[in-house]
Specification:
Elements: E1 6-8, H1 16-26, E2 37-47, E3 50-59, E4 64-71, H2 74-89, H3 101-113, E5 146-150, E6 158-171, E7 179-192, E8 202-210, E9 213-216, E10 221-234, E11 238-240, E12 245-263, E13 270-289, E14 292-303, E15 309-310, E16 316-318, E17 324-334
Parallel strand pairs: 1-2
Antiparallel strand pairs: 2-3, 3-4, 4-5, 6-7, 6-17, 7-8, 8-10, 9-10, 10-12, 11-12, 12-13, 13-14, 14-17, 15-16
Helix pairs in contact: 1-2
């Protein structure tokens, strides 16, 4: 069973190997009876002083049992989960074993004398000494975990994380040449407990605001400014290096207004046009410390609004290309 266990915890928690080793220290027999248990999934989430451990045990009959532990830190929660796993594998597991050599030594000495008279015979005429009283185990018992049994068809619980990001970008999708853009977004990511680790659907909404871009022609020109709302959906996430580096493939779109203000012309004026743009993007994050990340993104898009901006003679000033590329670099924080 332990070989098939799925263990998911942060870098500050015990590793999978350390967790399995702690379980094996409690087990008495080398070949424990598993009582029909088929699958183990362990997840530890949160941060001190509020850490939550979740354990799911799937039986051969398809029954799913969930247990939860909460504690002040990851070590304490992992220890509680290890005790439950050990009892699941071996009901005779010695979960009350002491971690102090002195206490174990004293316990052996006391137990060796329990109920036995002294080996030295009593002196003539002296009453026999009473037997030593049995030692009382005053060590606190581990807390009983909360137990919830659900049917296989019930929805798996999901933890939700939120994030905020800011990006500096350059895009070729709007006007002739590169347009500098500042992007901000708020995101939400769900991590269903009983789904594969790569299934991490997320949704983000935000804004893109460009800096004024001057595009000129032989007879005049115009200043362009883009303001757009953005939305993206990322169904999966791939992560490596203990989730320090992650990549999100996404579908993204934006809608807003593209404003152009002409200059150098007799009939110079300002116009505002609808801006629509859709495409595929990829985001990469690198954890720097705790919940802070460096972020990079690439957005390949097809502008749906390709309005022509031209002077009165018909000379073209600018028009969105059939396909555009946006690249950016920024920072994000999760909470």
């Amino acid at each position: 069973m332990l070989e098939r266990a799925v263990y998911d915890a942060g870098s500050a928690c015990p590793t999978r190997e350390q967790f399995i080793e702690s379980v094996q220290r409690y087990i008495r027999t080398r070949e424990p009876v598993e009582h029909g248990a088929r699958d183990l999934r362990i997840r530890i989430e949160g941060r001190p002083p509020h850490v939550l451990g979740k354990l799911s045990i799937s039986s051969e009959q398809g029954k799913l049992t969930k247990r939860e532990f909460s504690g002040p830190d990851c070590e304490a929660v992992a220890r509680g989960l290890a005790i439950v796993v050990a009892l699941t594998i071996d009901p005779r597991a010695n979960v009350f074993q002491s971690t102090s050599p002195t206490l174990e030594s004293n316990g052996d000495e006391l137990s060796s004398k329990e109920g036995r008279p002294s080996e030295d015979p009593p002196e003539h005429g002296a009453p026999p000494s009473p037997p030593h009283p049995a030692p009382v185990d005053r060590r606190p018992r581990p807390p009983r975990p909360s137990l919830v049994t659900v049917s296989p068809s019930s929805k798996a619980a999901a933890r939700v994380h939120f994030s905020a990001e800011v990006r500096a970008e350059l895009t070729s999708a709007v006007v002739t040449g590169a347009l500098p853009v500042l992007g901000v977004a708020i995101g939400m990511e769900a991590a269903p407990m009983y789904m594969p680790r790569w299934f991490r659907p997320s949704l983000a909404i935000g804004m893109r605001q460009s800096i004024s871009k001057e595009v000129s022609s032989s007879r005049g020109g115009a200043d362009f400014v883009l303001t757009a709302a953005t939305a993206r959906i990322c169904p999966v996430r791939s992560s490596v290096f203990a989730e320090r580096l992650a990549i999100f493939p996404c579908v993204e779109g934006e809608m807003g207004a593209l404003q152009a203000e002409a200059y150098g012309l007799l009939d110079a004026r300002r116009t505002t046009n609808l801006w629509l743009n859709v495409g595929a993007s990829a985001f990469g994050t690198l954890r720097i410390v705790d919940h802070w990340f460096v972020l990079a993104n690439v957005f390949v898009s097809r502008p749906l609004s390709r309005n022509r901006f031209e002077v009165d003679t018909g000379e073209l000033i600018s028009r969105a290309p059939p396909a555009g590329l946006t690249v950016g670099l920024g920072s994000s924080v999760s909470f």
